[in-house]
Hints:
By secondary structure, the protein is α+β, with helices and mostly antiparallel strands. The protein is 42% helix and 13% strand.
Amino acid sequence: MSIERLLWEEDATTLADLVRRGEVSPIELVDAAIARAERVNPEINAIAEETFERARERAKTVDRGAPLAGVPFAIKDLGIAQKGVPTHGGSCIPAFVPDFDSVLTERYLAAGLIPIATSTTPEHGLRLMTESAAFGITRNPWNTGHTTGGSSGGAAALVAAGVVPVAHASDGGGSIRVPSACSGLVGLKTSRGRVPLSPLVSESWYGFVVDHAVARSVRDSAALLDLTHGPDPLAPYAARPPKGTFSDAAAREPGRLRLAVYRRSPLGLEISAETLAALDTAVALAREGGHDVEEIDLPMIGRDFMADFAMSVCSAVAGTMRMEALRVGRPVLGEVERATRVLARFGELMSAGEVYETLERLHAASRKLIIETASYDAVLMPIIAHPPLPCGAMDAKGSDAFTENMLDRLRLTRMLKLRTFFGQLLDQSLWFTHWPSIQNVSGQPSIAMPVHVTAAGLPLGIQAAGRPGDEETLLSLAAQMEKLSGWTKRRAPLMKPE
Length: 498
């Protein structure tokens, strides 16, 4: 079997084991990953910066005793620093070139991972499709006419295409889980405070953003979390320590769990038949695994909650644009995409009091959610309301132009209430995905699981949300469902190597 075929078929755990046994070398894996990137990236457009030569040099000196020694890897072009590697954030604003590594980068390197590239993202991670003026459209390896989701869409495309078996990703409103759902991958959104973001930031988007990975297998996600979790001295808070290792949790049977199913749209918008079929498949797998499953409603999660989340993000975007202006020494709103500009302008209209009130409403709803679902080991719910969209589909509704016109009216007259405006904006911008931001606000862990393929041959995953700090139960459940579904050997058919 060729090394490229091996890279396409196996997960990171298997590849690292082959390196330990001397059956393949780190440089062979890295060269194969680079060759595959050069072959498939013109089709999927998932790379922001190539770091090929750095990767080759690291492969020559990597400690082969490290847990994931020699495994090719990709780091998202947003929110994490690699010394000397430009970070664009998917934007045309001049790149940030750090002179330091993030703590998470240090942990990746200590684990033996070898970054070969940075992966594409929409501008500042603000869309759930990876399309940007700076880098163009990232395409789904299952069907290149469709999106791989966002904002970690480049990471998901590289893993689904078999360039790397696992890749760094981040999630502020579904940005790990949406690409996983679109690309047939496992995507764990960790508990708030599980993985440090320092020293680049202490927290991002008021603590909504977390970092982890998209992966080919549940055991890879667990193994990587074992190697990267835990606070550092600059972390403002930390998640509850696990009872054991995450890998042990993924390897054991979960026992009989009490699961809930939430199938309503918190926005009251359409849910496709394919999405409901995917959720039904997950429920059937859970029952096959011996778990008790019951339907529930979450009345504290509705349009007001989603509007408050979006308003909070707008205020964060406005602050980010101010910080970017300070970094480059000039105003930047004229250099960003219309969607980014719209969100920043809206954020500037909010008073400090409105921002605080919004966050307090979100925290109150989160407390109620956590209390009322505490008796369940996990809650199954959708991630995307529709199968992976055709590339460019989010622009087709004209939401950017709509919202900019509305903002002009709001700025000039102040006659429209902010929340009334956002009620209209939500239907324009969040019709593709209604659920993932719930766990970003509450801080709960949630794992995207591949369970379904649509009639058009596209993956469509669902998620299981757990109690705060309890990734172990989610990993155990996801590993069982992975085994029952037989998903572990499914690969994007368009990208099969010779």
